[in-house]
Design a protein that fits this description.
255 residues, alpha/beta, Rossmann fold, 7-stranded parallel sheet, 7 strands
Length: 255
């Protein structure tokens, strides 16, 4: 008898934030191609409609809801709605994020911009996890994947807000994994180096050049390369890896 395909999402409901573009869109498309029922979340409704249309045109199952992950009340409302509609959420791939202020020394960074970066990249991560954990524990199954960054491990100059937010995500995942390890729930992070996505169009050119110069492979990563790791970490196959940060860095980080 053939072994069951643990990377299939057949019969599973998977939330993907940041699904309107970039890594989130690539992850949503890949998970849908592997038979998952994908609920796409983002602030960009036009982008969400495009993602859902492309998935359904390819024969996949997808719907969308607009969500600002920096709003705790918004996160609570959307997760409650999805649980009411689908009964269970099997996995979350959280790709929502912004680069925040770049190309500035820390003393010149506007505090409101710094704080907004933390609210979206870190607070959103915490709130999504808090809202999903009770039902995942009750169901004795769950997969949570948060997008971190190599910036959260190594730090990029001129990106203090982003570095801080992503280091926070990595630390958050490490601790929460130990809380839910006996409940059939895994929580991991994915740390890409610089990837060819819309978020990097807002990064100062000299910072982008610095980041690429640090990558031994010598090029930008592609969204589908990150999506493969996200899909694994969100699948049944990822059953004994938790609290870990998967690097997708072209060899920049090897720890």
């Amino acid at each position: 008898m053939a072994a069951s395909n643990l990377t299939s999402f057949q019969g599973q409901v998977v939330l993907v934030t940041g699904a309107a573009s970039g890594i989130g869109k690539a992850a949503a498309e890949l998970i849908a191609a592997r038979e998952g029922t994908v609920v796409c979340l983002d602030l960009n409704e036009a982008g969400l409609k495009t993602t859902v249309a492309e998935i359904t045109a390819a024969g996949g199952k997808a719907s969308y809801k607009t969500l600002d992950v920096s709003s705790q009340s918004g996160v609570k409302k959307v997760i409650a709605e999805i649980l009411a509609e689908h009964g269970q959420i099997h996995a979350l791939a959280n790709s929502a994020g912004i680069s925040g202020p770049t190309g500035k020394p820390v003393e010149e960074v506007d505090w409101a911009a710094f704080q907004k970066t933390i609210e979206i990249n870190l607070f959103g991560t915490v709130w999504l996890t808090q809202e999903l954990m009770p039902s995942m524990k009750a169901n004795k199954y769950g997969r949570i994947v948060h997008l971190a960054s190599i910036a959260g491990k190594e730090g990029n100059p001129g990106m203090s807000a982003y570095n801080s937010s992503k280091a926070g995500v990595i630390g958050f995942v490490k601790g929460v994994a130990k809380e839910c390890a006996t409940f059939g729930v895994t929580i991991n992070a994915v740390a890409p180096a610089v990837i060819r996505t819309p978020i990097n169009e807002t990064v100062a050119p000299e910072i982008q050049a610095y980041m690429v110069s640090k990558i031994p492979v010598g090029r930008l990563g592609e969204p589908n390369e990150v999506a493969e790791i996200i899909a694994f970490a969100a699948s049944k196959a990822c059953s004994f890896t938790t609290g870990f940060t998967f690097d997708v860095s072209g060899g920049r980080a090897t720890y």
